[in-house]
Amino acid sequence: MNQEPIDYRTGILASPSEVDAAEWNALLASQAQPTPFLRHEFLAALDATRCAAPDAGWGAQFVTLTNARTGRLAAAAPVYLKGHSYGEYVFDWAWADAYKRNGLEYYPKLLCAVPFTPVQGTRLMAENAHARRHLAATLLAFAEQADVSSLHVLFPTEEDAATLTDLGMMEREGVQFHWLNNGYRDFDEFLATLEQKKRKNIRAERRKVREAGVTMRRVRGEEISDAEWRFFSKCYRQTYREHFSSPYLNLDFFRRIGETMPENLLLVIAEYEGKPIASSLVVWQRGPGGKGGTLYGRYWGAIEHVPCLHFETAYYQPLEFCIEEKLDVFEGGAQGEHKMARGFLPTVTRSAHWLAHPAFADAVARFLESETNHIHAYVHELNERNPFR
């Protein structure tokens, strides 16, 4: 109780390169819920390849707190000045439209998030609770003093969200679908826990891929060749073309994370007559002490159509990998109620929001109260029809 108050030096950094990578990663490793996506290597790759850069509407404004006494990094958050709402997966397009209809500017806004990555994890990296609260207060003060409409913190942990809401930010909930490993010995033991119809459908989907003559192989990050990265990037771009959209990431980005964080990567490749026709990239990490861990479904694409190939490449192969490696969770990414038929269950995610305009803040607060009630009813309904026996 008699400790001296800690003095922090605040930094607003225009690039991840302005903070020491080892210090950043050491702070991340000390958090209760770190993810590979907040590693310095991942964020630096987004910056260096211009995937998340000012000319793409992502202006880095990373907030750091340095302990003035020790000189060590005490807290940090990945913050961006955004000129649009693409690549976020917590949708505020209606809020931006309401601002526009009332003659107000919604952009720029401040966003604390990992670009293009709807994965829950720590956002307020801090060495202790005091530093975490100080960092949250600094974020809010930064937003209040900047010429922005709002501040948004996407997919924080429950602890981070509580810190932010205690300071007055509004909480928003969403739903994702995650698969939980109940100590399964193999894929068949997992299938045995599902309802008969679901089990039969999965076996039929996998059989269709085999009978089409498609073979599967998994390549760990250290072994991914440049030709395989080029093929995967081609598949990734094809997915965006099919959805009449532009890809967020480029081949240089994938090459960079392949070089700097290969231990977190797994590439699944589908081949027909010895030639690759589809692939998916998943990201994974071990849990504390090398036990358990999490697999994150990320990107998928195909250059040829084979019935059910998407499910085999992006779901069943990663699930088998989870079981073999004894990982605890497979996070399937944003949205996707269809994942429930494959053993994934609804999981509530969070975000926190502050709007500078009082009237709009009140309107959004009322909207969020109603939306939260709908989310809870939706999750209850989904749990009532879960796929397990």
Tags for this model:
389 residues; Aminopeptidase; 2 domains; 4-stranded antiparallel sheet; 37% helix; globular
Characterization of the model:
There is one protein chain. The protein is an alpha+beta fold. It has 2 domains: 8-174 and 348-384, Gcn5-related N-acetyltransferase (GNAT) (Aminopeptidase), CATH 3.40.630; 182-327, Aminopeptidase (3-Layer(aba) Sandwich). The protein is built from 11 helices and 15 strands. The longest helix is centred in the C-terminal third of the chain and has 27 residues, at 358-384. It is globular. The chain starts with 7 loop residues before the first strand and ends in a 5-residue tail after the last helix. The mean pLDDT is 96.
